[in-house]
Write a structure and sequence with these properties.
eight-stranded antiparallel β-sheet; elongated; alpha/beta; disordered C terminus
Length: about 675
């Protein structure tokens, strides 16, 4: 009897036969291989086959059958898994040579254990592996390759790179969900492109690149696969991947999924096949030896100041009105860092590109934009010129890291919000001036600074992309009211204290909810300006926005303000009542806050999604003296009888909001006690 073109294997047949039909199938795979001739096919039914097999030249082995099929297209390897189990010894599959097309298709290959090629060992040639899942194999030797090992630089398998990537990726994706396909991954409005999906695609590219080398010298160039898209009635999908053999695709149109206009453009067949999406990674096979994206950092510097202005009707009367002004200034510093984390010099020229878009706005507690006043976030785009690094130094771990191994392809700073003042009616920011808002009471503004960053970074070697980071809508939201207008924690957990800190407290006198009642911070600002609360020279210099220097000018300013308020001077008895009817407090507290964000790569090879990056300093808020003085010292209360003073100032502490004629001290205290200098 002649040998059939198809031989059959089924571990479940009661009596092993000659393999000519399903009913007379072999119960093991290797006997069928030994009997087969070139161009024969072997169909293997679902089941677990604990054996090690060696493929013959020109023979094709197919799994995924139920055991009744009459046509190969009827099989389904997902429903009918065919498992080759190496029982933790040796190579599960050996391909010793293949001058003719030799195929392994539709198997789960597991539990191999060898120095290399534990799952599949191939000596090269015309070997095709498709629709196979290679898992739980252990390569113990120096060459590794627990899943698969090919002894020559010929591509594994002998398929085009995109075909191999697509087949491998599909099998890996279907491990997560049978509904997933590389040709249909929804990304809007539901985003199914999870970290697990990305890592499955990355693994598929890595498997392919582990067996092929591009270029003539180390480090070898990686494979690059970029997504294509489709718009199905407003639903955006990844429709597949195409291999990018150069860097020209980066000059194609860039679109944002949060733009309805951009999403509509993806209905066009040319655009959806060529466009790039902000935030959507491309897949780059893992190749060692390349300098890589290492860090994106942003530092936000926020400075706020609080000014008070008091008004009188005549020089001999008491103040009848108090006005306040908040000023705010915001600046930002940005940087991107690359690092050669290998000890070897990277000798070839490497071209580094960065594109950065930054937006910022200040909102209230209801999400209304207070700045910019046009309601559109402040936006700035940075596209610095590319830099080319040749002979990039490697890192030295025997001593301090070689600083030359770090490169900054991008660093800049921007004045995000120029010095501006806040107006409460209507709430908004405008250019700073000396004009105070009147009759606004003592409102405590609610400010939220909202910032986003969009970063694209790519490295080009020999005209091919070797590194690409595409981060979109990286958002930061800072509650400025909480961080600037309330006490802060220093490192170690100590709560900021002292008169200067007290000036930012937002609780109102006697627990009132009336915005016409001053806050305790306003009272502290008045007390320091009157000299009733003493602060150090460092604090006067470091936390005072009034610009009044130390020495006689400070003493004169305090005495003049005391006379303006109806108190006796404490530095010079000759101080006269100011002729002006409007006066600012000599002390205007100012705070500077540093907010640092750092996204750092954990792995020089895997850093393409934000989840792959670590938050180097999450919401790192640091308060320092904005104008000098001591750094980070908790302020100490140096005054006596503060409680008595607050009581004595009773009506005065409400800053003449009520009856301007009632400014005597409370609790029967004589004004002479309150006019003393407390040191």
């Amino acid at each position: 009897m002649g040998i059939a073109a198809v031989l059959y294997v089924n571990a479940m047949v009661p009596n092993a036969g000659n393999g000519q039909t399903w009913e007379t199938a072999f119960s093991k795979i290797q006997p069928a291989i030994d009997l087969a001739s070139p161009e024969n096919e072997i169909w293997v039914a679902a089941g677990v086959y604990v054996e090690h097999i060696s493929l013959r030249d020109g023979v094709s082995l197919f799994g995924g059958f139920s055991g009744t099929e009459t046509n190969r297209t009827q099989r389904n390897w997902n429903i009918h898994p065919t498992v080759l189990d190496g029982s933790n010894t040796g190579h599960v599959v050996n391909v010793l040579s293949s001058s003719m097309p030799t195929r392994l298709d539709g198997f789960v290959i597991k539990n191999g254990r060898a120095d290399f090629g534990a799952g599949i060992y191939s000596a090269g040639g015309d070997f095709i592996s498709a629709n196979n899942l290679v898992i739980h194999n252990n390569g113990d030797g120096v060459f590794g390759g627990g899943g698969a090992f090919v002894d020559e630089t010929a591509c594994f398998p002998k398929q085009p790179a995109i075909s191999c990537f697509t087949n491998l990726a599909n099998r890996l994706l279907q491990l997560h969900s049978s509904d997933l396909s590389i040709n249909r991954i929804q990304i809007f409005p539901t985003n199914c492109y999870s970290l697990e999906v990305h890592r499955s695609l990355q693994l598929a590219a890595n498997i392919y690149d582990a067996t092929t080398n591009r270029g003539t010298t180390y480090p070898f160039l990686p494979s690059v696969f970029r997504p294509t898209f489709t718009n199905e009635n407003g639903n955006i999908f990844i429709s597949g991947y195409t291999e990018a053999t150069d860097d020209t695709f980066l000059t194609n149109q860039w679109l944002a999924l949060n733009s309805a206009t951009d999403r509509d453009l993806l209905s066009d067949a040319f655009i959806n096949s060529n466009a790039n999406l902000y935030g959507q990674p491309i897949i780059i096979g893992a190749k060692k030896g390349f300098p890589n994206f290492n860090e994106f950092s942003m530092e936000t510097v926020i400075q706020a100041s609080h000014f008070l202005q008091l008004r009188k009707l005549t020089t001999s009367s008491f103040p009848y009105q108090t006005n306040q002004m908040y000023q705010l200034r915001i600046t930002n510093i940005f940087g991107v860092e690359s690092w050669n984390s290998y000890t070897q010099i990277f000798a070839r020229p490497l071209e580094l590109h960065v594109s950065h878009t930054f937006t910022a706005s200040i909102m209230d507690e209801n999400g209304e934009i207070l700045w910019p006043t046009n309601g559109t976030p402040f936006t700035t785009n940075f596209v610095p010129s590319a830099i080319v690094i040749s002979n990039w130094a490697g890192v030295s771990f025997s001593s301090r890291a070689n600083s030359n191994s770090f490169v900054l392809p991008y660093s800049t700073n921007v004045v995000t919000l120029p010095l501006s003042k806040y107006s409460s009616s209507p709430p908004h920011f405008q250019s700073a001036s000396t004009v105070f808002e009147t009759n606004a009471g003592f409102t405590v503004p609610q400010w939220f600074l909202v910032m986003t960053n969009r970063i694209q970074y790519w490295a080009i070697d020999s005209g091919r992309v070797v590194d690409f980071v595409n981060l979109h809508e990286m958002g930061e939201k800072i509650d400025l009211t909480m961080e600037l207008l309330n006490p802060v924690l220093y490192s170690g957990g100590a709560l900021e204290s002292g008169p200067v800190a007290d000036m930012w407290r937002t609780n109102r006198i006697n627990g009132s909810n009336d915005t016409n009642t001053p806050t305790s911070g306003t009272v502290s600002q008045i007390l320091v300006s009157l000299g009733f609360l003493q602060i150090s020279e460092f604090d006067w210099i470091g936390y005072n926005a009034s610009g009044i220097p130390l020495g006689p000018q400070r003493d004169n300013a305090i005495d003049s303000f005391r006379k303006f308020m109806g108190f006796a001077p404490i530095y010079s008895a000759n101080t006269q009542v100011p002729s002006t009817l409007v006066m600012q407090t000599p002390f205007a507290p100012t705070r500077k806050l540093y907010h640092r964000v750092s996204l750092q790569a954990n792995d020089p090879i895997v850093h393409f999604r934000r989840e792959d990056l670590t938050h180097g300093s999450p919401l790192n808020l640091a308060l320092i003296p904005p104008l000098g003085g001591l750094f980070g010292l908790a302020l100490k209360r140096r005054t006596k009888k503060l409680g008595h003073l607050v009581s004595c100032l009773g009506v005065r502490s409400q800053l003449a909001i009520e009856n301007p004629g009632r400014y005597g001290c409370a609790d029967g205290c004589k004004s002479s006690r309150c006019n003393q200098r407390f040191g």
